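Notes to self after the Tuesday call (sharing in case useful).
The group wants a holo model before anyone commits to mutagenesis around the pocket. I volunteered. Ligand is adenosine-5'-diphosphate. Logging inputs and output together so the record is complete.
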Amino acid sequence: MSGEPVIKTEDLSVEFQVGNGSVKALHDINVSIYDGEVLCLLGESGSGKSVFGNSILRLHPDNALVKGKIFFNGQEITALSDKEFLPLRGAQLAWVPQSAASSLNPLKSIGKQVDEVYRLHVENDKKKARENTIDLFRLLGLPRLPELADDYPHELSGGMKQRVLVAMGTSAFPKFIVVDEPTKGLDAVRKREVIKRIGHMQKTHKSTMLLITHDVAVAESLANDIGVMYAGEIVEYGSKDEVLNSPKHPYTRGLINALPQNGFHAIKGFSPSASDMPTGCKFNPRCPECTQECIDGHPKLIISESEKHVARCYHA
Ligand SMILES: Nc1ncnc2c1ncn2[C@@H]1O[C@H](COP(=O)(O)OP(=O)(O)O)[C@@H](O)[C@H]1O
Ligand SMILES: [Mg+2]
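Result:
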């Protein structure tokens, strides 16, 4: 890709202070997301995907220590004070949170909740805000419009609530949006529907997106590039086709072999916890291709213009 990335991170790391010690949840993430593109972070639960997305939006709790740099349209946003940063959030950098159930206000109609984002960040005009909300609801395939906007969250299904959250995240036309696990907890039919609608919305608005998911099918449907995450690191990076059709890292191959259509061959063992990391390659205790080199050394991952499909593996 050419041009300035919309989002770029340099050696982004996050540590959490817990008790007298600390756990490192994210290690030296270096990625660029270009205008109108979707980068998908794919990996099992606990691999650091949400921690990465939350770092861009400064949504961490107080016990988090963020190191490294984040650039938005070339400006280093990690150098901004909270006062300087906060106006960007919601208006230019937006977020569709992981949990639809707990992220909507049960006491307000869904239309009102989406209107408020527009009125706060774009223009405090009630009528225009509602028009924008209805347009978005229509784009996201919500039924019974415009009356549905007066419904309360408890009147909607899980899939509809997910779509309301997508509408909330995008109603101020942000330049960049983090969409965290948009299909978690949905059945297969609703999942397909939400994926289709997000894809349509992303293309219509030409949004630049960080998509976070544990689900290979979601990555396959929506991503341009994929970063596979394991134990707080990116272990493989490349275009969607490169990563899914010719995976280089044994962990990525494991994720693909675990798919139902490939026979459900689960990866043996469990992800390590942040407080008890193996030495060397973090995947080595679970890796069918592990050699002494993988225990002694920690393979690097360098993503460059000339070599974009890369893996953190000595055998790749
Ligand atoms: N506030 C916190 N305090 C301590 N550890 C945390 C905190 N938030 C996340 N973590 C740890 O960071 C790691 C990555 O978490 P997360 O990014 O939520 O995973 P994912 O989104 O990939 O499922 C996990 O090991 C988790 O326990
Ligand atoms: Mg998460």
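Two things stood out.
The mean pLDDT is 93.
The longest helix spans residues 188-205.
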